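#lab-general

N.A. 3:47 PM
ok so I finally got the sequence cleaned up, no stray characters, all 108 residues accounted for. can someone with queue access submit it? mine expired

B.Y. 3:52 PM
send it over

N.A. 3:53 PM
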Amino acid sequence: MLQAWISSPRGSLYFAAEATPYNLEHLRAHVRALRAVGGNQTCLALDLAAKDGDEAVAEVALLARQLTREGIQVRYSATAAEEPERFAVEEAPGPSAGGRREAQRAAT
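B.Y. 4:20 PM
back already:
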């Protein structure tokens, strides 16, 4: 099972389907529809279940390379779908205490 998250200034989309050529073409169409001008602000995160075969992995990797050449930021991983914690989004950490102290020193 392929899972994909598209995010861009124009919107976002979650896509989940088997990694067939037909579904990958639909994913490509969604990415292009949401692509920001220039493409560099558009991100596609792909996750393919580890139990999918080598052919599916090769097809998804080819799509990732093609979209990267078009200026889309692509992150790709192959994981087991039974690991839901892999799909959790972590918040970016705030500035460290040391970083805050350095900023305060620079301001004075």
